[in-house]
Amino acid sequence: MRAHRKAQRKARWETLGKAGRAHTASAAALVPGLALTAAAVAVSLWASRALPGVSAAVVAVVLGIALTNLGGLRPAFRAGLRFVSRRLLRLAIVMLGLQIALPEVLALGWRALALIAASTSCAFLATRWLGPRIGVSPRRSLLIATGVSICGAAAVAAMHEVADSDDEDVASAVGVVVLYGSAALVLLPSLARLLGLTPHQLGMWAGASVHEVAQVAAVGAAAGAGVLASAVVVKLARVVLLAPIVALTSVALRRTADSRGGAGTGRRPPLVPLFVLGFLATVTVRSLGMVPAGVTGVLPQVTGLSLAAALFGLGTGVNLRELVRGGRSLVLGGVSTAVIGAISLIGVVTIG
Fold it and tell me: How far is CA 177 from CA 190, 209, 301, 305, 329, in A?
């Protein structure tokens, strides 16, 4: 009996030892990809500082695309890149919620909030409706709609988590966001002068229509510090809509999968993704004033670096030859940008 118990204990220790060695080997496999990602993020951060209005996340996805299409991606990198493009991405989106204080958003007033809701929802729905009608796949149309209407690359990455889209869809949507968001940096101030808008109206318009937070900040900074603050708050009000839009889309996709025969026909989206619940939780924590001021000061930088790492990982999965065939995505992104720009401009002029 004693010998039997001793044999059982020995077997358990051997099992634990094997599990520990496997875990160590698995962790070691992440190192090359994580080191490559760290280098890419450092370059992206430097480029974003040299190019105002260009976020590190956008530079990172471009670096990832360049690396894989120039033949620089090695099998040893894949485990680490898979880790950052999935788990780190979800963490970054959760941290994004810590930048949003609902009292600041509500202080905009009901008319400004109605404008944000109208422009965002109209652009999102119009893009999803038009995309398949001009030959853009429903999944890619969904990513473009989310990126243009909410918050650029971060929104694209969040929707990618539930949409069962591929990396080429992500790259196409991010490309659209970069192209038209960058054009807005030049066009919006020029159009504002032509239309006789006040600096405050320009800030509101930028916050309600420009894609990336960094791009909004660049437009607002050019118009003055006070305008910058209002532009960024309006933009963050759009970011709040990320959680309900992703959650509702996930529910709709889940019902569609069920109606077509259940999970056997493809990946079944979660009812409400955990990272969306985490995003809502962090928004709540920030809104209740539970985040120290010292932490809120560094949150945008930390979140931006995390998103850059995640999007670099996603970028390494992009086949550029397939991407360049998607000229219709550019048309769709242009129409979507025009829709959100026109509706938000009408609202800004109406509000005064």
Answer: 20, 12, 20, 18, 11
